[in-house]
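Risk mitigation, structural track. In case the binding assays with iron/sulfur cluster fail to produce interpretable data, a predicted complex structure has been prepared as a fallback.
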Amino acid sequence: MSASQLIKKFDIDFTQEVIDYASKFFEDVENVRSCIQCATCTGSCPSGRETAWRVRKLIRQVQLGLKNAAIRNDVLWDCTTCYTCQERCPRLIPITDIVRAVRNIAVRNGFMLPRHVQVAGLMIKHGHAVPINDEVKAVRKEIGLSELPPTVHSYPDALGEVKKLLDETGFTKLVEEASKGVQK
Amino acid sequence: MTDVGGCFPRLFSLTDTVEGVFMSERKGAEKPRIGVFVCHCGTNIAGVINTEELVKYASKLPGVVVAKDYRFMCSDPGQNMIKEAIRDLNLNRVVVAACSPRLHEETFRRAVEEAGLNPFLFEMANIREHSSWVHMRQPKEALEKAKDLLRMAVAKVRNLEPLEVRKVPVKRSCVIIGGGIAGISAALDLADAGFEVHLVESTPSIGGRMAQLDKTFPTMDCSACILTPKMVMVARHPNIKLHAYSEVVNVDGYIGNFKVKILEKARYVKGDACTGCGLCADVCPVHVPNEFEMGLGARKAIYVPFPQAVPNTFTIDRDKCIECELCTKVCEAKAIDFNMQDREVEVEAGTIIVATGYDIFQPYEMYQYGYGKYENVITSLHLERLLSASGPTGGKVIVPSTGEKPKRIAFVQCVGSRDEHFFPYCSRVCCMYSLKHARQIKEKYPDAEVYIFFIDVRAFGKGYEEFYEIAAREYGVKIMRGKVAEIYEDPKTKKLLVRAEDSLIGEPIEMEFDMVVLAPAVKPSAGAEKIQQILKLSKSADGFFLEAHPKLRPVDTFSDGVFLAGMAQGPKDIPDAVAQAKGAAAGAAALMGKGEVAIEPYYAVVNEEICSGCKTCSGICPYGAISYNEDGRAVINSVLCKGCGACAAACPSNAIEPNHFKFRQVLEQIIAAFTE
Ligand SMILES: Cc1cc2nc3c(=O)[nH]c(=O)nc-3n(C[C@H](O)[C@H](O)[C@H](O)COP(=O)(O)OP(=O)(O)OC[C@H]3O[C@@H](n4cnc5c(N)ncnc54)[C@H](O)[C@@H]3O)c2cc1C
Ligand code: SF4
Ligand code: SF4
Ligand code: SF4
Ligand code: SF4
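Fallback model:
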């Protein structure tokens, strides 16, 4: 990217897009318009102390309509969803809820981190985000458990059902599309 | 005549003829000759509504003799047009279709009266706020609505009755509640103008919060140096009766003639005998945390809150006193009297000024700041006392846990203010006083590091931006843009870790400080609550007293004769509190100077023949205007009554009607609304 990121235009529909989308799941999302950039959120953020994640900036990007900057941003995934910022925001903005909604919008626009694509792929393939391995099998045996847990690992038939569910809900397709974006 | 008996008006149907149904039937009134005057209000009305069309319509309404329009009806030529028409055409009713009656009802009433008509035979149709402004893009519909409004006004004016404005005398005396700088200023202004003033203060001394301050922004005057002379003037002024350590417990009456009951609490020390020598306090063995010092120092059970107190009379705190009577033994003036009783006095007043001030929010609930838990987290008022030469440390600012001078201090702004969890409003004084505090600390300890964490700096007053600039440029105060998120204490060193973000750099901050000063929100004082109930005042959403109009009547209340001054009405600093106090004093003086006040004759009237004495109405009247005579019939005090009509609606016998809004007048108007 060039040294200066001169802004010439805002994506004025982005704010409404986030509000409309997030409002399907969360309350008071429209409060985002009233953010005063007091910075309580970033100041409270345990992730921000370790990473480059600046939640206040995301809220600003939503408020102004900087869609690309908001969704094409790897640090968007560094929020731990601890909800500290949301609890303290003096304008009662559901900050963490908005982070989650923007992540969904990012994925729908084809922006997903490679490691998330990988985890999702495991889910689709094995019915488990973290499938069992030999090491875990050994430990289970050692403490007197069956080698395989009573999940799809033990019931291969059920894997078909899980896959069906993932297809029906559109998850499989979403991950496929997003993985193309990741490759780009 | 339709007989609808006692069921009226609940069974009233709009198709019924109104003739004869109403007890307020107009008997023997002359035939209405109505003039209608339509105002263009420049283009405000005429730019949307076809006024020519409206005039044509008006001239056909029953009873209308003449209809005219003009560019500005409220101008002299406009008013003259009305007056001439009244004289030339012998009009006996006038309707003006223009703006809101709140703006010009008075103007037109006067014009009508000058032409020899009773001013209450006049009605306004608001075709601006209610039509042209709100239907700017629908001119056709706006015209139709204007016709409706005009037709209704004509229907009402036809049924109006002449009324007389009454005058009530106004006593030349004012009760001022609250002896802070606002109450003191108003008291001195009124007393100097020759009015009698009763200044009621609930604590043992006047002075209010300003007495606790060390220096004052933006001029850095010593607070006591500018306040104490005024306090002394209050004590000496022949026209001021000071009721300190007293409370207003009841107010009866109305504008011009209030009867105010004041409870003078027993001090157990005779005011006229006590010389203020303080020998008693020297021997008193009981130590109590000193409220004036924000608990940073101690006082005795017998005390004056601070050395310059007015009145300079000692007071015994009987909750804490152990009745050893050591004080009685040493008091040479024989001033101590353990048998003293609370005393109630009643004073008469023409006006009342409420100046009950503010408290600061104690931010225990904001657990992220550790106030009350971490020793070195204090509030701004604590710091004022630490800065004060007469304070508990003799003016030395110290770290509470060590008693040493601080090397690094952080100020935390907007603690509870501008926060929807607590107080959504801006407290308006804290940005400035924190800049002041930062400068004061730098003056005392030039090598101390001082940081102020703001959301944004609000320095809006005269000389304030300059004050801010000097704090940064000359004193090197660091202005951080970002609200403090949380504070942690190192349990061993008691040092404080402050977390925030400098939003301008966009990076989180984690810094260690010796002490942190919070700037908590201001809120209405605890004493305001009682006064609100006693005077039936309204509050705005922020909890402070509501003024009658934010711009045009900023010191008036909806209770006639009652004014507001200082923080009681909303957050403000000393210059604004004093300016408002002067405004309140001027408002009160205007009423008292004239000696009488005109009361709008819109009060409700009881028809004694119909009143069954059921007593439904007195409980409903929000102004306490209804009582009952020996026969058990309702009687309405026409001065207290505001003509709200609640009693009229509630009376099961329809025995009550408010003047100017009689059943017939209102119902004819409603019928007109529904008949083209
Ligand atoms: C830390 C701090 C620093 C400040 N520094 C400055 C500054 O440098 N410059 C500046 O301009 N402003 C400053 N201010 C603001 C200033 O304190 C106020 O503007 C001012 O005191 C308001 O005066 P007041 O008379 O309206 O209220 P108050 O000072 O609160 O006085 C109200 C009085 O009414 C009495 N009272 C309350 N209820 C009743 C009742 N029911 N009956 C009888 N009496 C009652 C109270 O006891 C009190 O004496 C500061 C404020 C704070 C918190
Ligand atoms: S805490 Fe709330 S108001 Fe403050 S910057 Fe963050 S989102 Fe905006
Ligand atoms: S919810 Fe996310 S953004 Fe908010 S404080 Fe926690 S980690 Fe930071
Ligand atoms: S009687 Fe009460 S006020 Fe007097 S000295 Fe004893 S404790 Fe103090
Ligand atoms: S005056 Fe300043 S510190 Fe006080 S509430 Fe307003 S913005 Fe916050």
